[in-house]
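User: I'm new to structure prediction. If I give you an amino acid sequence, what do you actually give back? Let's try with this one:
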Amino acid sequence: MGNLYRELQKKKQKLEIIIKEAEDYLQAAPEGQLRIAVKGIHKQYYLWRREEKERYPNGKYIKNREKELIEKLAQKSYYQKILKKARYRLKRIDTFLDDYEEDELLKVYSHLHPARKALIQPIYLPDELFVQRWEQVTYKKREFAPGDQEIYTEKGDRVLSKSEKILADKFYMMGIPYRYEFPLELSGIGVIHPDFMLLNKRTRKEYYWEHLGMMDNPEYCVNAIRRIENYEKNHIFPGEQLILTYETKSVPLNIKVVESILEEFLL
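Assistant: Good question. You get back a string of structure tokens that encode the predicted 3D arrangement of the chain. For your 267 residues, that looks like this:
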């Protein structure tokens, strides 16, 4: 529910910007309303004003050369409709937020007696407890082959490459929970081991991160494309739940790009 609260706050801010823009435009907009009469392929424009309704019951004809006035009146009508909808939506959000207590679902569990807590699997956990349980999940890791380098991350995980260590250490330093090579079963493919599975602590959304580290190797590129297609066949798409980084011998992993990706998806 905390995520819902934050999303509604964002929507409220956006609505307030829209309302302000509409109000500013309408304050300087020309008087009256635009009426359009369509006859075949021809259009005729009329300016309708309340004070002239007896003299011009259908509106006063506007010549086509007065294009600026026509466009301003059309824009005015649009803003009036937008303003009405935005005010209504903002009022409903404000009503909800006034009655909303962000932590009310958490308190159901936290206010229980410890003896009762021990008997319950809560459906909604505080962020800290949710992350703790996410990180404590045990799984069988893929075995390393004889001769593989022994490379360890700051967290203590053994990884296959220096680039994977750089990534894992960056996740760890930025407080982003991750699992290294957590098994993922893809329909029609079987079990694969993404380089990393990561958790956005704020949204509780999980992401898969694949680092393609030898993109100057033709055979590696073919296998990488097939791997990405396998994700896509299972509705895991790049830029949504799948994050991809690349490098070659001459173009190393760009840590600034990594930081930007983390800020966009994981923080």
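You can read the tokens as a compact description of the fold. Here is one thing that stands out. Residues 179 and 197 are 5 Å apart (CA to CA).
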